[in-house]
Amino acid sequence: MTENGSGLVLYGNAAADLLQEIFILDITTAQIQCEACGSIGAVGSLRLYAAPMGAVLRCTHCDGILMRAVRTPHGHWLEMTGARCLRF
Amino acid sequence: MTVIEAATVPVRRLEWQLAEVREIVVETWRVKSLLLHVATWQGHLPGQHVDIRLTAEDGFQAQRSYSIASPPEDELVTLTVERVDDGEVSPYLVDDLRAGDRFELRGPIGGYFVWTVATRGPLWLIAGGSGVAPLMAMLRHRARRKARTSALLLYSSRSLENVIYRAELDAMAVRDPDLRVVNTLTRQQPEGWMGHRGRIDKALLVEAHFPPEQNPKIYVCGPTPFVEGISRLLVELGHDPLTIKTERFGPSGG
Amino acid sequence: MDEAPISRGFRSRRQEQTPKNRVPPGQYVTTDFPVLSAGPTPQIKLENWTFALQLGGSLLGKWNWAEFEALPQTTIKTDIHCVTKWSKLDTTWQGVTFDNLLKAVGLPEPPAAYVMAHSEGAYTTNVPVADLVGGQGMIATRFEGLPIPPAHGAPARLLVPHLYFWKSAKWVRRLRFMEKDERGFWESLGYHNYGDPWKEQRYDGD
Questions:
Q1: Residue B117, pLDDT score
Q2: Low-confidence ranges of chain A (pLDDT < 50)
Q3: Spatial CA neighbour of A19 closest among A62, A72, A71, A88
Q4: Do A79 and C189 touch (CB under 8 A)?
Q5: What is the interface pTM, i.e. ipTM, of the complex?
Q6: Is the pLDDT assigned to residue B183 strictly greater than 60?
């Protein structure tokens, strides 16, 4: 994850390296469904927040959190309770 | 170099590879392209990026992302770097780096912001400043494959001296009737400039465009406000958000 | 490659002339104020804003903006340290200390040992009460004498400067007292539960 000190909104494609460390597969082209509102979109098109601390990927329709991921020296963390499903 | 036809990337763990600088090309007064030899390189798709990592003698490390500006048809991997004042990494890459120097690189990363000649539909590229780099990979790939897809690059720069790849883009446009390159200069224009002035606005997006009915594949890359603004205008002009792919580019910490 | 290859001539540019005893290990000093958010900047209208103290299901106190501004104000000058390695020295904040909030609701002692701070947009962070009392924590409403800007947590944020700055929750709306510690947004995703910059407690397991 590159250092982004300006806090600007990025898109999921910018989290591709962190996600690929976790999934091994590049999931930025995978379709992900929001648990809260049901809308579907590519992981790469989601709004990415908190980039230097990790990846918080939010639904482009309802802003709900679909995925959160963090890289630490002791391993990776992933939380996806906001996603109904992921289709590769 | 084999071109990967389908828009899928091989499944493999992202690992750091060694990149050696073979050649450095001065693009503008603060932009250089680094042509890298990566012995373990497995290929990439136009639009993807890499992470690079520099290690100092005292162990200090810095990591940054850069889009790949070269097409998959090239042997060497090209990164185009803009020098950011007070940056940690870009001043080193632009001012200090020499042919023969080495650093680590991993990738390619990001299958989302990708275009290949296998994709149907006109290609509409909109670039802000150094955001032109991944779009250049797409245009170079298109040229190498001699594709006849209609393509348009709408490119916003501060001044003529800041237009990256200017000579190459002019030459591409001259010999390719299906490619149109439209420059707009936002801050300074040379005397006698007959092209566009000022930022890309709705009017320019209507004048230099493919209408929604032609179902263009749209790629927008530049600083975040640029990208967000243009995307909004494109949707207002009737383009399906699903056909618009965006990538934020530019100084990400320097 | 066992060791990362050295890039000839590369070195860190962040060689600041900073007093070592003010900069925790692994940090560099910046004069910027980088913005880091887990979500979009909320647009909060002052006339709709409230701040509450809760214990279990019950409300210990609730203030609207005018009422909150009427509480005793404290100004502090302090250093802040972000887990992403930047530190900013001599920042000035004004707001209502945690101690004064307890006084305002008539509690001579905190009712529980832990607090979960809840912000607009479902962000949470947990802090031991022991780290909020004695002037260590406040709900800040001014930064450098001016209202806190939206991107930095307007109109009010928690401020606990002796811990990593993710604990200073932006857009804070309530503090919920807890008998038992619970992990907040980042603490439940790999970050350290406590976050002492001087012990470099960035991640769970550090």
A1: 97
A2: 1-7
A3: A71
A4: yes
A5: 0.89
A6: yes
N-term to C-term CA, chain B: 31
The token pair at C48 is 């709709």
The CATH fold assigned to C24-33+45-199 is Sulfite Oxidase; Chain A, domain 2 (3.90.420)
CA distance A31 to chain B (A): 11
Nearest-by-Cβ selection for B112 from A8, A9, A13 = A13
Of B62, B109, B228, the CB nearest to A16: B109
Q: Domain check: are B59 and B147 in the same one? A: no
Q: Which residue blocks in A2-86 are alpha helix, DSSP H?
A: 16-23
Q: What is the mean pLDDT of residues C66-74?
A: 98
Structural domain containing residue A27: 10-87
Whole-angstrom CA distances from A43 to A13, A25, A56, B5 are 7, 13, 11, 22
Interchain CB contact of A53 with B (< 8 Å): no
Q: Are residues B47 and B79 in the same domain?
A: yes
CATH number, domain containing residue B43: 2.40.30.10
Q: What's the pTM value of the predicted model, to 2 decimals?
A: 0.86
Query: Looking at beta carbons, which residues of chain C come within 8 Å of A58?
Result: 39-40
Cβ of A17 within 8 Å of Cβ of B111? The answer is no
Does residue B232 share a domain with residue B157? yes
Q: Write out the residues of chain C at the interface with chain B, using a CB-CB cutoff of 8 A.
A: 1, 4-14
User: C61 versus B248: which is more confidently predicted?
Assistant: C61
